[in-house]
Amino acid sequence: MEDLLTLTLTHPVAIAAAKVVLTSFFWIAGLFGVFNFKVIVQEMVDVNLPSPPIFAVATIACQLIGSALVITNVARLGWLGAGALAVFTILTIPIGHPFWKFEEPKRTHEFHIVLEHITVVGGLMLAAIISLHS
User: Fold this and answer.
1) Which InterPro entries match (predicted)?
2) In 10 A of CB 83, how many CB atoms?
3) What's the Cα-to-Cα distance from 134 to each of 47, 52, 71, 75, 84, rounded to whole Å?
């Protein structure tokens, strides 16, 4: 049974599927942004970022390029894509989810989002490690 599990989890299709699932939040959000650019610009306005259109383009580019690098590991740069997505995700905490600034019940809701973000960063760390060995 252990051999079957090892064969399954190390199969290239399983690894590719895991990378697609791990990055799905980012590439789906990036594609949404491409087709709904004004919505992303408004998000940047809502969190008081300067030059909202520039931040919107940078966000979409990071999400799509980072995801593509993780999924394909082209030129063995999956680690770079994972790192970019991890830094992006960490930066969204103080910018978009500063739970410490809110009253309950929003504080708890935003805190749970932060915990999810931290968990995703852990997955991206593992993706970076895997990209160096494949």
Assistant:
1) DoxX (IPR032808)
2) 19
3) 39, 38, 12, 11, 19
CB 97 within 8 A of CB 110: yes
| pLDDT, average across residues 71-90 | 98
The C-alpha atoms of residue 37 and residue 19 are separated, in whole angstroms, by 26
| Residue-level pLDDT at 60 | 98
Please tell me the total count of domains within the chain. Answer: 1
Tokens for 71? 């999924």
Asked if 107 contacts 84 with a C-beta cutoff of 8 angstroms, the reply is no
Handedness of CA 60, 61, 66, 69 (dihedral sign): positive
Output phi, psi for 133, to 5 deg.
Answer: -110, 15
Range of the domain at 95: 2-132
pTM for this structure?
A: 0.94
- Give the C-alpha distances (Å, rounded to integers) separating 2 from 7, 11, 64: 9, 14, 36
Cα within 13 Å of Cα(58), Cβ side: 11
